[in-house]
Each structure stands twice: as structure tokens, then as C-alpha cells.
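Quick question about two entries, pasted in order.
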Amino acid sequence: MVDLDASALTTTELNRKLRELAAQGTEHIHILNPQARHNIAVGLLDTCSITIEGSVGYYAASLMDGPQVTINGNAGWALGENLMKGKVVLTRNAGASLASSMRGGEVFVAGNAGARAGIGMKGGSLVIGGDAGFMTGFMMQRGTIIIGGDVGEGVGDSMYEGTIYVGGEIGSLGSDAKIEEASESELIQVWETMERHGIHDRKKFTKIVSAKKLYHFDSLERLEKRAV
């Protein structure tokens, strides 16, 4: 294990050092004194385990393809943005646009998340132990979002594919989102996912999917061909 004192490095130097250590095969990297700085652990492509002791700013653990990052604190907006592969674990609360445009891997937030969690999500799993803000799952295209608590208004607005599970109250459904009965096997899978993160309350999760009334790809294509 390698310890890095973030207070002694600029953000660019810290990320460069992380990439170098990961490329060298370092299995675990321990970051001290992150000072809630932005853009920590960004653009990492090699498999490794990183633990950050303290809160981080925006875009932490984003644009990654492989590492597992654990943050013992809070995070600003866009945590885990565009995650391709790997895992991000946050022990407290996340800001807005959590896991936006993620394509694979898993993001877990033990506390609450702000607005637009999972916006433009294209794959992978987003698990929130507490509550999530408005427009969660906006324009979601694929993947799974699990919310242990309540969710705000406009959940699943304009979602194309993917599934959202809510354990608490729903503020309101977004445009073209609908509630569908969850099967027993689906609920078991959700419960097992939550239990893997230390949450053992087996709630009757509500399943939200796309109503698919806004699917106009074929007609748009025909109109485009006519224009050409």
C-alpha cells in the first residue's frame, strides 16, 4: 500500500501520481488530506484500489475504466461521471448529477444524493442508500438505479430503457415513465444488492420503467430521409 498526502500535491500532480502507481501494479493507494478538492482520481484506466480519507469536490472518481475508489466522506456533484468499469463507494452524501452518463460498473452512495442522479445513464448500477433528488434517472438509456429511501419529483423523466427501483415515497413520475409490478426474482435481486452494501431492510420496492410513448426514432428517420 502507498500513502499519498494530497495536501502536498496539486490536483494535476496527484492524478499523475495515481496513474503512475496504478500502471506500475500498485494494488492499494491511500489518499490523505483531500481537502474537498475537485477532480480527484480522474481518468484512471488501470485496475487498483484507492481509498480517500475525507470529502471530495466535484467530478471525483470520474472518467474511470477499472479502479475501485472508496471515499470516506461526502462528494460534490458528478461523482463517478462517465464510469466505464470499476466501483465507486461513498460513505456519506453526494451532490447533484451523481453517476451521470455512467456506462458500466457500480456506484454506491450510503447517504443521500442530490438532483438528477443517473442522468443520461447508459449502463451499470447506481445504488443510493438514502434519498435522491428531483429528475433522478432523467433520459436514462440503460442500467439500474436502486434508491433505498424517497425520490423527488420527475423521476425517470424521458427515460428510454433501464429500471429504477424506489424503496420509499415517489414525489412524482417524470414524462413517459410508468410504474410496473416488480417480480419476486427482481425484488430478491434488489434486496441482495442492498444487503451486499450492509442495508438489510427488505422493502417492497416500486419499479419504474419507460412507458415508451416518446419513441420516435423510426418516424424521425423517415422524415430525415425525405429531407435528404
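Here is the second entry:
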Amino acid sequence: MARYTGPLCRLCRAEQKKLFLKGDRCKTDKCPINKKRPIPGKDPKARTGKRSDYGVQLREKQKLKRSYGMLERQFRIFFDRALRMPGITGENLVGLLERRLDNVVFRMHFAVNRNQARQVVQHGHILVNGKPVNIPSYLVKAGDVVEVKESSKKLNVVKDALKELSKSGAYPWLTVDADALKGTFVAVPRRGDVTDLADIKEQLVVELYSK
């Protein structure tokens, strides 16, 4: 499956926003956003003027897509599915993105970022309701139990990532048992609960794709 293999910090610089793609490093002074590094490109000053409506919508889409580590085709598939669901399309989209297994593994603090969570899933370290699942885009349902496989519980990447749980606690739509390395996806989160996306306007993404 195709994936972005370039420098992750470049994506944050392009959006001039922390997308928290590198875990704890994003919270330190090493983050290029903290250093106020310029937008990447040969002539970044030429792109700092007033954006058109299309440009604003495009940037919102890029921020949301890159936050979840997805490419355009994958992201469009999720949007089309959200469009067919009853309710508000933008909120449906965020709900679907939060249900991705790689995202749930990241939210449960079994990985430091979504890229690492994707690897943990693909390498077969995760069980859903007791069965192995190695598809990062697998959609978790309310009540599903996600856990680290018994033979993988000694992995250093999982142990290191779990330290964040004691600092920030579990997200309100999840329950996590740190000792058993197991958690439950209680419910699809409401849009207001996903606070790290608070400044992303998903309605602009809907308007972009509706053109």
C-alpha cells in the first residue's frame, strides 16, 4: 500500500500547525513550529498572501488528512462513505477516522504516533475481540475490545508509548487497562470530544469535495 515516506516535520511546516506526527518530539523545543521555521519550498514568501476560498478549503483538507496519516485516495474513500451516512457529513467523517484501528491503537497509547500504530497493527501485534487484525483501516465498532497480543506485550515500543497514559489519561470514548494492555472502544466520539482537531473546520472539507 502506498504511503508517505518523506520527513514528517515538513508536513507540519507546510500547514503551519502542529499535527503531532512524531509523538513526544512535537511537544519539545525541537519542533520546527516552535522554532518558527518557514513554509517549505523554493519561495515560501510567494505563498504567504491572502488565500482564495479554494486555498482555505484545501489547507483544511490537507491538515485533516495528514493528521491521520492518509493519502488522497484513502481519504476520499472515507469521505464518500461519510457522505452516504445520515447526519452531518463533516462529523461523520471525523467519526470514521477515529474508528480506524491504527488511530484507536494510538489513542489507547499503545504507540507514540499514528505511523507507529500503523506498523504495530500491520506486524500482527493487535487483537480485536480476541482475533488478530493487521489492517490499519479496519473500522472498530462500539464495544469492541482492542488489545496487544500476549507475545507482544514485552515490546519496548508499546511500553514506552504507554507512559503517556499516566500523564494524560484515557480519552473519554475509550477505556484502557494499562496492566493488561487492553482497551474498549466505548462509543464513536462526538466532534467536540476530539479536542486536538478543535481548530480544523471539517465543513470546509465537505465544501471542497462538493464542488
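Reply: The mean pLDDT is 86. Residues 98-185 form a domain with the Structural Genomics Hypothetical 15.5 Kd Protein In mrcA-pckA Intergenic Region; Chain A fold (CATH 3.10.290.10). Hope that helps.
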